[in-house]
């Protein structure tokens, strides 16, 4: 576990620094949000804005903010070397409130460099990793951590019937390639990652442990301020996904079905209600038999992830990112499982440093059967 369980009970002394152009700025509060692996993170900052600072802020044509946070050994004497870089963001909107002398900045992380620029080039004779490097090179301030790939991407376009002349954002192309390669694409700080993120930081889980009530404490306790779970009952039984396709070049039709079989016991079952699998049908053009099987398995996993969800408000942490698994223990229910983070929001103000996690089920691959 990356967090200490049980907690030590000692006081926390979190610290944060916001840097603009190499200079630390004053702030009264900030919040950042990572929206999963493939989406841009967002930021919102409130800062004091005395009259003398108005010209400096309002004449800027571009503002880049580095957000650092952490728990330095000496809370009275520290710098950015003692903290963790959580986000580098490009400010999209600046608002000045003269009555309160407050400046509000909002924007997105450097994923915005790719989402705001479009391309109609498809690079069919290049590998995914070469394309990622070529696009990243258009932004010299951005560093890269790219896992080499070997497959020429023209094969992907043929299989997916991609429109070669359609103009998409660079980020759409990058995430498409990542999904086809079975990799992840994410911007953290000033670095574009394209690969397997377990190699970037520890892939150990973040633990949320619930302690049941006791005679001395007639209520449950947890290392979370707020904790809630939800279960999509339509997905609680067996789920089947069928993918069908007509392949023009082969003049043949193909079909594959993936099924997830549940072994849980119903609390109450009515004999008058038919127990049948939840079935989903999809049709895609130009897939082979193997492509249909792979697509069915992928879609089954995507659907199964929505069966159980968990939300928690916990003390702020600088070790948790969208690829960090969250492991819940102690409920004595099927909610005791490992979750995948779909959203992390951190906030730091006079109330302290806290973190909100929205998670969904991380399904076990061995529950998937192909028919």
What does this structure look like?
- The structure is a single chain.
- The chain has helices at 54-58, 112-115, 128-136, 154-160, 170-181, 289-304, and strands at residues 15-20, 23-25, 29-34, 42-48, 64-70, 84-97, 102-109, 118-119, 143-146, 168-169, 184-188, 191-195, 206-211, 221-222, 226-231, 239-247, 252-260, 278-283, 308-315, 326-329, 338-349, 352-361, 368-370.
- With 371 residues, it is mostly beta strands.
- The chain folds into four domains: 15-109, no CATH class; 114-199, Phage tail protein beta-alpha-beta fold (3-Layer(bab) Sandwich), CATH 3.55.50.10; 206-231 and 307-370, Baseplate protein-like domain - beta roll fold (Phage tail proteins - horseshoe like beta roll fold, Roll); 241-302, no CATH class.
- The protein is globular.
Q: What's the arrangement of secondary structure elements?
A:
Elements: E1 15-20, E2 23-25, E3 29-34, E4 42-48, H1 54-58, E5 64-70, E6 84-97, E7 102-109, H2 112-115, E8 118-119, H3 128-136, E9 143-146, H4 154-160, E10 168-169, H5 170-181, E11 184-188, E12 191-195, E13 206-211, E14 221-222, E15 226-231, E16 239-247, E17 252-260, E18 278-283, H6 289-304, E19 308-315, E20 326-329, E21 338-349, E22 352-361, E23 368-370
Parallel strand pairs: 9-12, 13-20, 16-18
Antiparallel strand pairs: 1-2, 1-5, 3-4, 3-21, 4-7, 5-6, 6-7, 8-10, 11-12, 13-14, 15-19, 16-17, 17-23, 19-22, 20-21, 21-22
Helix pairs in contact: 3-5
């Amino acid at each position: 576990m990356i967090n200490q369980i049980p907690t030590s009970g000692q006081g926390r002394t979190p610290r944060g620094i916001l840097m603009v152009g190499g200079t630390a700025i004053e702030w009264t509060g900030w919040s950042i949000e990572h929206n999963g692996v493939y989406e841009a993170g967002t930021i919102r900052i409130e800062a004091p804005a005395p009259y003398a600072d108005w010209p400096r802020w309002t004449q800027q044509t571009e503002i880049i903010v580095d957000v650092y946070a952490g728990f330095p050994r000496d809370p009275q004497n520290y710098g950015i070397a003692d903290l963790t870089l959580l986000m580098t963001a490009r400010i999209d909107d600046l608002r000045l409130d003269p009555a309160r002398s407050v400046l509000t900045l909002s924007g997105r992380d450097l994923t915005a460099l790719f989402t705001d620029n479009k391309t109609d080039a498809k690079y069919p004779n290049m590998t995914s990793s070469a394309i990622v490097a070529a696009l990243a090179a258009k932004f010299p301030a951005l560093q890269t951590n790219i896992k080499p790939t070997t497959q020429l991407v023209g094969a992907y376009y043929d299989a997916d019937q991609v429109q070669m002349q359609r103009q998409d954002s660079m980020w759409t192309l990058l995430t498409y390639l990542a999904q086809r390669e079975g990799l992840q694409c994410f911007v953290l700080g000033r670095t574009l990652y394209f690969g397997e993120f377990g190699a970037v930081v520890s892939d150990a889980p973040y633990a949320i442990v619930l302690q049941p009530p006791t005679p001395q404490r007639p209520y449950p306790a947890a290392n979370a301020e707020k904790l809630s779970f939800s279960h999509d009952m339509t997905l609680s039984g067996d789920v089947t996904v069928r993918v069908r396709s007509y392949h023009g070049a082969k003049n043949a039709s193909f079909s594959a079905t993936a099924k997830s079989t549940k072994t849980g016991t119903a609390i109450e079952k009515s004999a008058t209600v038919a127990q049948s699998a939840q079935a989903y049908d999809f049709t895609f053009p130009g897939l082979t038999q193997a492509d249909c099987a792979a697509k069915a398995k992928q879609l089954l996993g995507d659907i199964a992830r929505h069966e159980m969800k968990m939300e928690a408000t916990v003390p702020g942490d600088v070790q948790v990112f969208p690829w960090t698994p969250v492991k819940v223990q102690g409920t004595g229910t099927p909610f005791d499982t490992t979750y995948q983070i779909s959203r992390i929001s951190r906030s730091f103000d006079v109330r302290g440093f806290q973190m909100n996690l929205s998670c969904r089920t991380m399904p076990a691959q061995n529950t998937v059967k192909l028919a």
